[in-house]
Amino acid sequence: MRKNIVAGNWKMNKTLQEGVALATELKEKLASAKPNCDVIIGTPFIHLATVSELLEGSIIKVSAENCADKESGAYTGEVSAAMVKSTGAEYCIIGHSERRSYYGETFEILKEKVLLALKNGLKPIFCIGEKKEERESGKQNDVVKAQLEGSLFNLSAEEFSNIVLAYEPVWAIGTGLTATSDQAEDMHAYIRSLIAGKYGNEVAENTTILYGGSCNPKNAAELFSKPDVDGGLIGGASLKADDFKAIIDAFN
Ligand code: PEP
């Protein structure tokens, strides 16, 4: 059966020292109360090696927030999937809406990133979701379908089984507006039906689909109670150990 996961996305927050302090606090909190779900923290590149070492032996896994769409070479400032893997990180967030909108990441670019992440033994946490105007005009299903088809449905079933999906309606990210649990469930069930159509029921049932968008300690339990919502990708609330832990505890 698929895993329940709570994953943090620190985005461009925390100096190295602040990140180490947050990871240490979280490690201590989770050591005394074993969670009922897998826990991942997504950190900026500069934290990955230090935080991975710090969390060795703990239940918390580490994710990058991005990787390059090229293997290696003259791409100043980029960080390859192989480099991410060499830090000890096991996951890589790919296709976050901030990367799509601020850095022009297209379906094709994201397809390359996913292939390179998989090739280097990283599990992609692949983000999909519609913008406000797309939901208002009832296009959310078409948008999400195109995102899946454009960057993931080239994968074999075996490759796809390493993907974690995160449905993140763009209008809910960092806005305090959360999708209702029914809106999240409708979309997650639809996503699962698309996976079933492409790869069959077994792959679909085994795919973890996270919800992301202003998830917090107050709304997490309601969202996670839905059958197709397998946890959350958490931005703002992952920056405070108590809030992140409270979201993890929603699975208790
Ligand atoms: C995110 O950026 O992935 C996210 C879900 O952010 P927030 O929880 O702050 O809305």
From TrEMBL:
Positions annotated as active site in the UniProt record: 96 (electrophile), 168 (proton acceptor)
EC number: 5.3.1.1
Annotated compartments: Cytoplasm
Pathway: Carbohydrate degradation; glycolysis; D-glyceraldehyde 3-phosphate from glycerone phosphate: step 1/1; Carbohydrate biosynthesis; gluconeogenesis
Statement: the UniProt record of this protein carries the keyword Acyltransferase: no
A single Gene Ontology CC term: cytosol
Catalytic activity reported: D-glyceraldehyde 3-phosphate = dihydroxyacetone phosphate
Keyword terms, alphabetized: Cytoplasm, Gluconeogenesis, Glycolysis, Isomerase
InterPro entries per UniProt: Aldolase_TIM, TIM_sf, TrioseP_Isoase_bac/euk, Triosephosphate_isomerase, Triosephosphate_isomerase_AS
Gene3D superfamilies noted in UniProt: Aldolase class I
Family: Belongs to the triosephosphate isomerase family.
Role this protein plays: Involved in the gluconeogenesis. Catalyzes stereospecifically the conversion of dihydroxyacetone phosphate (DHAP) to D-glyceraldehyde-3-phosphate (G3P).
Name of the featured protein: Triosephosphate isomerase
Gene name in the database record: tpiA
